[in-house]
Structures are given as structure tokens and as C-alpha cells.
Amino acid sequence: MFSIPLADDAVLFPLEVWHAEEFFAHIERGREYIGEFVPFPDRSKDLEGARNLLGGNAHKAADDGVRLYGIRLDGTLVGGVLFAAFDAAGGNAEIGCWLEPAGVGKGLVTKACRILLDYAFTERGIHRVEWHAASGNKRSLAVAERLGMTREGVMRQNHLHRGVRQDTEIWALLADDYRAQGQGCRRR
């Protein structure tokens, strides 16, 4: 298995169906924290649910769509980042993240998302990458800002999560903005 270093004690790696037990243990540790804004815990109530979530995403990745990447800190899965949408032909993608409390405040998500942005813009020729987050998810919105994204608007009460209608903020970064900021792993 390959991984990309994020820090001396942290790596980013493709999260695949054979990681279901590790993923489920991670979800169990952070179930309430992660589930406040992210649906993974509600879709992974047991090991079979975790396996189905990862397996369903593997099929989407095989079709050049959704991709999940785990973040390990000191050898333990503590969260991840993903392409929640990936449309190479249309030039659009969406990235996002999730973490259990043990991974918070270390800059790992920002570093991992920069790797995804670099891949999308420099390797795949994506034109626009979006970030969707509940307005109440201040940590997630701070990542979008650190990534140099522009807040484009709010979709009011568009997302039903755990019986509550949430507003969703839309942030985006365009390829030209990305290049102008000199972000990424391979500065071109």
C-alpha cells in the first residue's frame, strides 16, 4: 500500500474496502463528533455498514468519481479527506473531510486537501473545486478559507441531517486562482 507523508507522524492513503475494520473502529471512536455534520457514522452502524460504504465508494472511484483517503496519525486512522464529487469531463470536483477528536488541530486536513487540490488541478485538469459545509461547521469552513477558497454563497436549509435542516455554505477555488496562489505539492 502506498501513502503520502503529511507530517513525521501522519500519512495520507487510499481508503479501500479492505480497511473496513479499521474504518469502523475509527467511526466508533468518533461517532458523535464526526456525525455532527458528516453522514458516515449513520451509514456505518456496524462492520457490514462500514464495508458497504467503502465498497460503494470503491465502485464510484472505479468510474473516475468519488474517492476516499484516510489519514493515519501515529499508525491510527483518525479521519480523512475525499473527492465527494469528481467530474473530469466537466472540469468540476468537490472535496471534503472528516476527523475524530484525536486528529483535530494538527493541520492534517489542510495538508491532505492541498494534495487533493494539486492532483485535481495539475494532474487531472479540473477547472473548479468546491467545498460544501454546514454553516455551523466552523472547523470545516476554516479549512476552506485556509485553502484560499472563495465563499460563494449559502444554500438555506437545503440539507436534512439527523432530522435538522442545515444551511450549506459553498466555497470554491478555480484553477487560475490556484496557480496564482502558488499552492500545491508541485509548484509549476
From TrEMBL:
Domain annotation N-acetyltransferase: ranges: 15-177
Q: Which PROSITE patterns match?
A: GNAT
The record's InterPro entries line, in alphabetical order, gives: Acyl_CoA_acyltransferase, GNAT_dom, Ribosomal_N-acetyltransferase
Task: Report what the protein is called.
Answer: GNAT family N-acetyltransferase
